[in-house]
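Subject: Interface between my chains keeps coming out wrong

I've been trying for a while to get a sensible model of this assembly. When I model each chain on its own everything looks fine, but I need the whole thing in one frame so I can look at the contacts. Pasting all components below, labels as-is. Any help appreciated, I'm running out of ideas.
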Amino acid sequence: MGIEQASQAIADRRWLTEVGTSDAALRQVLHGLPGVDQVGAEARAASLATRSIKRDAKLWALDTAIRMIDLTTLEGADTPGKVRAMCAKALRPDPGDPGVPPVAAVCVYPDLVSVARAELAGSSVAIASVATAFPSGRASLAVKLADVSDATAAGADEVDMVIDRGAFLAGHYGQVYEEVRAVREACGRAYLKVILETGELATLDNVARASWLAMLAGADFIKTSTGKVSPAATLPVGLVMLGAVRDYARATGRQVGVKVAGGIRTAKDAIRYLVLVRETAGPQWLTPGLFRIGASSLLNDLLMQRSKQLTGHYAGPDYFTLD
Amino acid sequence: MPDRGGASRPAAAQPARLAVRKTYKLFIGGAFPRSESGRSYPVTGAGGTLLAHAARASRKDARDAVTAARAAVGKWSAATAYNRGQVLYRVAELLEGRAAQFREASVSAEGHPAAAARREVAAAIDRWVWYAGWPDKVAQVAGSANPVAGPYFNFSVPEPTGVVAIVAPPRPSLLGLVSVLAPVIATGNTAVVVASEAHPLPAVTLAEVLATSDVPGGVVNILTGFAAELAPVLAGHMDVNAIDLTGVPAADRGELERLAAGNVKRVLAAEDDWAAPPGLHRMLAFLETKTVWHPVGI
Amino acid sequence: MAGKRGQRGGAAAPQAGEVAAQPAGGATGRTASAGAAWEYAPAPESREIVSISAEYGLFIDGDFGPAADGRQFPTINPATEEPLAQVALAGEADTGRAVTAARRAYERVWGSMPGAERAKYLYRIARILQERAREFAVLESIDNGKPIRESRDVDVPLAAAHFFYHAGWADKLEFAGLGPGSRADRAAAADGAGEPGPAGARGADGRAVPRPLGVAGQVIPWNFPLLMAAWKLAPALAAGNTCVLKPAETTPLTALLLAEVCQQADLPPGVVNVLTGAGGTGAALVGHPGVDKVAFTGSTEVGKEISRAVAGTGKRLTLELGGKAANVVFDDAPVDQAVEGIVNGIFFNQGHVCCAGSRLLVQESVADIVTERLRDRLAVLRLGDPLDKNTDIGAINSREQLDKITALSAAGEAEGAQRWSPPCPLPERGYWFPPTVFTGVSQSYRIAREEIFGPVLSVLTFRTPEEAVTKANNTPYGLSARVWTEKGSRILWMAQRLRAGVVWANTYNRFDPASPFGGYRESGFGREGGRHGLAAYLDA
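Reply #2:
Try treating it as a single job with all components included. I did that and got this:
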């Protein structure tokens, strides 16, 4: 079936109960989506990357990018001290300039959520936790759900789960669907971001299919990567995912957000993603409620560029805190 | 310093300024290492004077060179033909910039008269330019759409074979080297070159040109040393796809061809007139042909 | 899912199905206006890199100078209507002088020069073009009206690439697979020597080298001024011909700058000559008995005139004329990329492209969704100052062309098609036309048959592949066509049946010096680029 029928089928969600969510049924829908021409998608992304954003538009973009950051630490060596320092940075990215907005959220492992909560209580900075045997996703469903419960019980506002890429690549779409659904239930009032790990999915067609699968199963955000695998977020992948949320919103009326994560280190990169959002999904998505950037070192580069825009001079890294 | 090599010389007047002599090393993976064996051999000039100690590459150096060449194949063969042409043209620009150095070396090291040296160097640069214009044309000359009997689109494209080992001709040291090396890399292959044993220094200077151009490291690797030691290693190496035996005396080729058969290498052993226009054979020898079928239907 | 939302997040927590809140401006408030829909600030490319003289002369025999009778004509910036310079208008005497200079250069210097030496001149020109790339791009945008992003990223790099590619053929003509030609055979038989040398002797492997034709008179259009100059000069020179080039009346400046580059490359005088002027200049050049070869790119109407003028003279001729290309989108097309291709196919370069995809033939079952996405995509196009780096659509090249586009679009409406353009504020001064889509178009409408040469797309439908082919071929033109489908066999089936010189499958408007370009039927004959493109300039 082509895009027209697929959209119609999805809009009329009764097919989910009639046809079921078996591998075969889901394959019909997902493989029926229009293909993505890789060369064309890469060319479009590259063309958008040539947009020249200056002055007021650049300042707005820098501020917006800061407000969209999920400031992240996901290392085996993380300690409460590390998390506390990062939370301080999240609240007040530039102690020297109170005009700098706080970031959207911090992102940590479930066992450090309580530490973050103590630091961020009452603030506008949300606490996101990875879960479901991040980053590999190789564990039983029971273990994954327990991981989610730990996170939400400790006070996480958002849960970043990973899909089972092995199941996806083996065509077990029903299993992937059920896992996302189960996690979405376990999240309760917390937002669910579904990490597709696009680097492992390899093709843009798979990125489109995984995006739709996650959205059908209830994702609030679809997210590119764990940041532990290269390639992580890329502009062409972002293009496809933003196209998917746009089309899904048109078909169902529900707006799903996109989070790009991994390898976004410079303000220039971040602004390129904002251009992508604006000209693909549309200006409605240019808000932390619908677009996030998972990053760590990006924040300081944004601060440096912001400083240059405001003062006219290039700054150096020593003028910004390393937390 | 002990007096080495050759006949006794008249005491030279002390120069006003002492020259900083160059060390001639191998060129592997874009870097200039000494031989892992620590060996070198003296290179003498026209009058029997000592010019330098060139590195004497060992079998392990050869192995490392092949590894570097293999690592570079992916990126070099995937570069657009236009890009390869641009890179090669840039090498020619740098060669032109160093023409005087090459001419001087030709006179002092090999005893050529100045006019002959000038001609050889000019010919070498012009030959490099000739090959720089080939990458974006080879497919049009060596490829084809084939009119098969059936509803199929069938086309043949040439592709580089991979890592090519080359034994460069002993002379002319620069023109001969350029003539065997340029066609190999123009077509997207990477190379491990055994330089002329008696006159290796131009090869090392060429390596310096390559290192300062846009040629990615590992695309060209140059080993100086004894061809009799190195050629068999490369001929028998299972990760070398093809070997050019131009610089090997005819009598010695048989054994090397037997070794090459171990992994069915493509073997080229041609006698070229270096003064004549090159022709296609040095490019075609290192190109595979891939033929693709695809049905035609609604 | 309603109600299951976290407490935190404030502005980061829209409810399901709701439109997200507008993003708040920065704390300073100064960016509030930028925030609402994030308007990009102006990002102008500086004009300072280019210095435009008040007057330009003809380039004949290696020097610039006024026309014999001193006549001039103005060239203007179509985005602002600002006059840029007065340019010499070549008369009959000037044309004669240029052809004579080209003939002399051919006989004494260029025609017998070894290919390897000709190659090096062309490499030099390519290199200087790369070095002065930004200057050329800015000048092109100012004189032509096209966005700087296009001239910077497409026109100038391709022009340099054309010189590079053809430089490499200059000393390899014996390998072009075109045969030695009658003159070469006789020369080679007499000579018998095996040396590399002047064209005509034996080349490598003992092959005979084909001979050039002599003096080429070349008339080019205003849509890609520098690139068309490169397409004409590079192969002609590589093959050993000398050239007299006549750029379009509204876009002479980059051709004259290219002449300066030829000087900087030490190109021998007379090898390249540039005659600026209008239609009369072109006619004089084409009609001059001293010209051996005529190459023309432009409208089919003028192409036919030239054919008639050249008939019976023995001059060799190649023509690259108009088109009314079909852009065929099947129901299994990669939709987003197809829409991108549709947009680029007709709105790139303001639609001033002979191979523009001006007829969208969309499979009826997906016509609505494709049209809907097309409208969304058009809404994001940016029309404005060509020197702004974010501009997608620049100015129409001239008042004359604007009037023609306007008239044909009015005809489209009158014939019953539905017309749509995205909201698009047009600058007050200059020549502008918003991207325009006509739906409900039939084959018989003027907008479906005549070349508009502007940012106007006609949308027609088809049901089956056979019908798509029939409709696509139902035109006296045959320059290019596009096919969008994920099915490889269908691409090849369509490509086989489309009567067009260039077929782009799942892509659009791609050019490469190695890829032959040219049309069928009234879109002209002869090819430019690739091995095949050399044939036009050789006696082979």
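Reply #3:
Confirming on my end. Residues 148-167 of chain C form the longest helix (20 residues).
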